[in-house]
Amino acid sequence: GLGRMGGNMRERLRAAGHEVVGYDRNPEVSDISDLAELADRLAAPRAVWLMVPAEVTDATIDRVAEVLSPGDLIIDGGNSRFSDDAARAERLSRRGIGYLDVGVSGGVWGRENGYALMVGGDPEHVRRLMPIFDALKPPGEFGFVHAGPVGAGHYAKMVHNGIEYGLMQAYAEGYELLTRSELVTDVPGVIKSWRSGTVIRSWLLDLLDQALDGDPELASIRGYVEDTGEGRWTVDEGVRLAVPLHVIAAALFARFTSRQDESPAMKAVAALRQQFGGHAVRRP
């Protein structure tokens, strides 16, 4: 997969001196025409890194495994559910193929800044891939962890993304309160002022400031927010392990609310207020 992240990862690896053969269904970005050519172009033992959507990962792994040989290694760097990893590793092991799950964070900025990597799998496989991990991660001591056995990398990335939901929601709510204030006349300026010297400074805050530089009132953006699954899985794990995740759960539900043109739940609340208290309701 050579999309927004996979394509940039290919270029970062090449810049570090690694030989990379990239395959994508889009022939304009692909180095080769099919997966069989991928196996032919790489000397054994091969390492094949997948960056595809979670819903097609299993099918892609099976297709790739058909052209690989014992001793090769598959790395899933997509946002797969951690509970799928053990079965994949077992399935591949019967072919003599290794498996690593790697949570990858860095977005479209990773090519320049590096990617945070959360790895799950056998220590031997991790050691073998360390030159690749070193090339992808940011310089310095941070940005890489061998989190544990197969599944641990995607688990760590799931929790990472759940935290991300909460952080983004907090910034968003503060932004909205500023826009409603009768006193604050320079909302983008306030956001910018927080970027240095405050305890809430972060890269996410920098990106919000950057977005406001281009569109001070965010007028070109609809308030509709998707989720790709990790927030839901994080909340599921909170329920399973009886860990209270108040902020992350609220941030997830806020995304669901954003997709409703008119909330049926809020209609019911308005109707109840009218019934028990005679409160006025707004008519369509």
- The count of helical stretches stands at 12
SSE-based structural type: alpha/beta
Q: Using the CA coordinates, give the radius of gyration.
A: 23 Å
How do the helices and strands follow one another from N- to C-terminus?
A: HHEHEHEHEHEHHHHHH
- Can you count the beta strands? 5
Mean pLDDT across every amino acid position: 94
Q: Main beta sheet, described?
A: 5 strands, mixed
Q: How far apart are the first and last residues' alpha carbons, in Å?
A: 47 Å
Tell me the β content.
5-15%
Q: Helix share of residues?
A: 40-55%
Unreliable stretches covering 5 or more consecutive residues: none
Shape from CA axes? globular
Strand numbers in spatial order across the main sheet: 1-2-3-4-5
Description:
It is a single chain. This protein has twelve helices and five strands. The protein has a five-stranded mixed sheet with strand order 1-2-3-4-5, sandwiched between helices. 50% of the residues lie in helices and 9% in strands. Strand 2, helix 4 (85-93) and strand 3 form a beta-alpha-beta unit. Helix 7 (152-180) packs across helix 11. The chain has helices spanning 6-15, 35-41, 54-66, 85-93, 110-113, 123-136, 152-180, 187-193, 203-214, 230-240, 246-258, 264-277, and strands spanning 47-50, 73-76, 98-105, 116-120, 144-148. With 284 residues, it is an alpha/beta fold. The radius of gyration is 23 Å and the shape is globular.
